[in-house]
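Incident log, structure service

09:12 report received: a user says their structure output differs between two submissions of the same chain.
09:20 pulled the input from the user's history:
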Amino acid sequence: MSEAVLFEVKSAVGIITLNRPERLNALNGDIHEGLRQAFSKIEADDGIRAVLLTGAGRGFCAGADLMQGLAGGMRDLGASIDADYNPLVRRMRACPKPIVCAVNGIATGAGMNLALAGDIIVAAKSATFAQGFIRIGLMPDAGGTYFLPRLIGDTRARAMAMLGETLTAAEAEKFGLVYKLFEDASFAEDALALAAALAAKPTQALAAMKAAFNASANNTLDAQLDLERDLQRKMGYTPDFAEGVKAFVEKRPAVFTGKPA
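09:34 re-ran on a clean worker, output below:
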């Protein structure tokens, strides 16, 4: 595992920590390689039932590392997008395990859009969000033009991208960009508790929800209804469904294993 990315497992949660605090966890080759390795472990380990992605220090992620990746004049930026950013976003969205992105501080540019690729976004009250691309003559990438309009609406998305303004955590919550804010002092513990709560839920149902929500953006209502039917049919044959019904009848908390049908 690259030292630029830390990985550990707690309470069935795979915790990924971007670990270049001196550069506000700006994305470079080492971080991308570390993320690839971390997600390979998560995908291969059935004992990991949820993911928590966060940053070390006072930044979540400041986007691409301008000092290493972009300095020196004009170049083909599409190459690094093809090699690193797009595969990462696609991998996060396709991962059947829910991903909590815990924005502990500054989230800018591709770093902000990395957070948007998760399933649930939480933030420290001191966190900030910005689409900083316009400041260096670029447009949003890493899924920014896809996620932002769907989360905060087209008008706000265009303004945020074109003006390059910074949102406070409170503004981001108001706009619907984040699910919940936590106090700075307890942020790491609160974010892990939320991810652990997800890990205790029926894993196959969470994966089915994720697949359905991913498809809904481009499906017609008829297609989405059919997809819901097909996925629910699979859920009806899972051990967790049987356990859930049994626990309901017995008036006790369900104990979900996450095992497939």
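09:41 both user submissions now match this output. Likely a transient worker issue. Closing.
09:42 reviewer note: The mean pLDDT is 95. The radius of gyration is 19 Å.
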